[in-house]
## 1
Amino acid sequence: MQTLEQLKKGELVGATHLQLAEDLTQFPREIFTLADTLEVLDLSNNRLTELPADLSRLTKLRILFCSNNQFTRLPDALGVCESLDIIGFKHNQIIDVPETSLPENLRWLILTDNCIKVLPESLGDLERLQKLALAGNAITHLPNAIARCKNLELLRISSNQFAEFPYLLLSLPRLAWLAFSNNPFCDVRDEHAECMTLKRSQFEWQEVLGQGASGVISRAINREANDNLAREVAIKVFKGEVTSDGSPEDELDICLSVGEHPNVVTPLAKIAEDSMSALVMSLIPPNYFNLGQAPSFDTCTRDTFTQGQAFSISQIQHMVNQVDSVMAHLRSKRICHGDLYAHNMLIHPEGHLLFGDFGAASKYDCLPMYQQHGLQRIEQRAMTHFIEDMLNLCIEEDKQTEAYYDLKRRMFNIA
């Protein structure tokens, strides 16, 4: 992170990335001294309420983050920034999204956790839009123009005020990752009376194993002898705030609803106290590793992978078969995962795969059958991308095998 003082002294001349978090209440005009070079500007975690009308002077600006500020209106100045293709205004107080505030080259728009009720019809003019995060607002319907967003691949509308499922989404030809839980049309959580409810004090907390948008996972020691619970477990403590995917409480509910499957991290119990909501899970052995990494700014909706990562076609078939099994299990529960990605999978060196992260999952058993089938098609598109990613990692000598072409054909049949 840089400082405003460095900027004022001219120490940042030629910078392509700038991050300032100094409790700013006004946009520092000194930023314009970087007009010829600045590509990424992060002004998150300040107290800004507006941007300058001449923001477009930053002619090379591609990415702008203004999360955790005090905006009540998405600035009109954004709409004339021709190079902008990623905008993030998460955790503000935005009520108004003007028709003129969306630059036409936008690929990725983050408006999570605001106060938005209505979106502009100009959303339909964003032909390049691939990723749209709207969770945690008060939106009651999507504009009809969203049907023109033919390149939209990932959409988050959880924790809004939709009285019915936005059926227009089923016509989007590339939509593959969708989250819609915690809306009035599907706002049902199960009691899970069969699940053990334990106390935090029962566990001795150990090191943090990982963390994401919805919570922190730690290793823990079970102090009490219990035939139904291992001595060592993993506990995911959910954060209270709405994430880009939706509500942590829905993730807890869906994890318990999914139940047991050999390729899903097993839920064992829950902790439900005033100060904590948490899921107790089986501890994953340390020799499992992430199959993929999350998308980058450049890939937008597609996973990234470690350079040199490669698998034989038989290993890929085995992975695909395991994911197929998980998806069939979820269909039987009328749950769509919403985030079918390699970066949400762990794999053992011998090939066993564990599927996780249900933060974007949604229940759809309340919907008409044609909408259920439409959601299943959306999930199948995500499966297409997963197969494509795995085939791109196939070792060269296996790319002429019948098994390789079988998966290729299957990929196109799904699409």
Note: Residues 112 and 275 are 24 Å apart (CA to CA).
## 2
Amino acid sequence: MQGVIKSYDPSSGVGTIIADTDLREYELAEGALEHSPFRMLRQGQRVIFDLDGRGLAMKLRLGSEVDMGTPGFELAHPDDRQHPQDGPDQPVLGPKGH
């Protein structure tokens, strides 16, 4: 899933993400930032996340414009669902593939 950080308290680790798809709010699971590139979160920051069995946000990670589905950014290898933008022949894509 992808969404935006609504709130985050670095001292307690408590935070909320608003999902892009349905605007539903998800609380962060304990340790949601462990093994992620984040040490801190800011309001409005875009993230990709998974849900644990209790419906809490976990495994926060960065997404590229392609991962986020930003219009005008295309997959370099659309048939490769696992690594659609990987590979040595990957073109540098910007808006509208330029």
Note: Residues 40 and 77 are 32 Å apart (CA to CA).
## 3
Amino acid sequence: METISDYKNTKAVYLQSLGAAQTVTGSKHLLKTPGLNILIDCGLFQGIKSLRQKNWDKLPVDVASIDAMILTHAHLDHCGYIPLLIKNGYKGKIYMSPPTRDLTELILRDSAKLQEEDAEKANRHGYSKHHPALPLYTTADVENALPHFVTINTGKPYSLNTHISFQLYVAGHIPGACSVAISCYGKAIVFSGDIGRYHSELLPAPTHPAKADMVVMESTYGDRLHEKGDTMQQMAFMVNETIFNKGNIIIPCFAVGRAQDVMHILYKLKQQKLIPAAIPVFLDSPMASSASKVLLRYPEWITISQKECEQMFSGVTINQDYDGTERIIRQKGSKIILAASGMLTGGRVLEYLKHYIGDQRNTILIIGYQAEGTRGRALLNHAHEIKIHGLFLPVKAQVKEIGDLSAHADQAELMTWLKAFAPAPANVFLVHGEPGAQEVLRVKINSEMHLDACILKQDEAVWLFDVDEPASTSV
């Protein structure tokens, strides 16, 4: 592949990853064409400190040169940088599905609020190296971003100019999540976004167009298969074992997607009398509560009835504030607590960990992907202690994992998704994965499908094809 540095051609299309290249988070993929520059996703880096610091760096492209943006879904590593994009000069529209619009507003407001709270707490207790500690962006920055949001329904092409249009396809990752198929100067380029599961608790299976010339594809679980087993039986066993030991079950979960899946499983377990009906279930995440209500507004995006959706919510006590968190912690007796964040990078779950991680009777149940450098990854790697708010806490609680609850397709499902294109795409570009996982998937694609699969590198612009038609710049 030729890069932009040695193939400078104004009548060509290039692809440049500004994030989620050889790492999982920070998704930002720029399609540079003679007429328009289109950004697919605009997420925050998460995980190890060297990645998180990238959020403070200036983007390697002129933000004002980006003409349009398309958002695949509402997770923070795909949408969390949007307020900074606007603050730094982006003037265009941001296209997304209707549920993604509602969920993104929730997530960005929550992200700004947490950053403001963390900065205030760091300044008050003096545990930051920065004086003063500042939030990456504020609630006001989020408010400035919201007018740029434009909703687009799936199954309908949307034209950006004479030569470029796009269409959204259900991706099955979280409610509203989509893959993006861009028709660009006669070529079909598909950006997978995050690919969901083919057998989800609440969501339909992922879809995409029949044909693609080029595919930009996530590879989070490119090197592994999810544990195959009876998820409900596994959950029931862990809950009942912890209750027998007079402990508590803490489930760190993403407020959008995993929280709702777990609530549905717990609802079914109680209905089938596989766990005690009296065991209290707390959802300590105002954002997860609000996100759950989005499901009721968009019933066409989930696979269960509205009645069942309402019933599963009715069996959960929702907490809104930190005073409530303290009351839940003080409440005697076993309980199940769902709290964000899913990778234990912040949020209410840290308060529970501080109180419960030192007691072997308790269970911390990990259910989703844990990025390198997060507390969740450390726990899965059997860390003997973790650091929370400047304190090192010994890990004595039981740390368990249910892999089949992941919202990401595993290697077999990724291959199923890719093999559904007919004919097969000419090029596959792997993003959103750690290097080891990407290399394993690259080799598997090359060997099984005989396709030219390559791994995109951070900030490197790759030439895709030349364009003969004159440029058109309207949006």
Note: Residues 12-224+407-466 form a domain with the Metallo-beta-lactamase; Chain A fold (CATH 3.60.15.10).
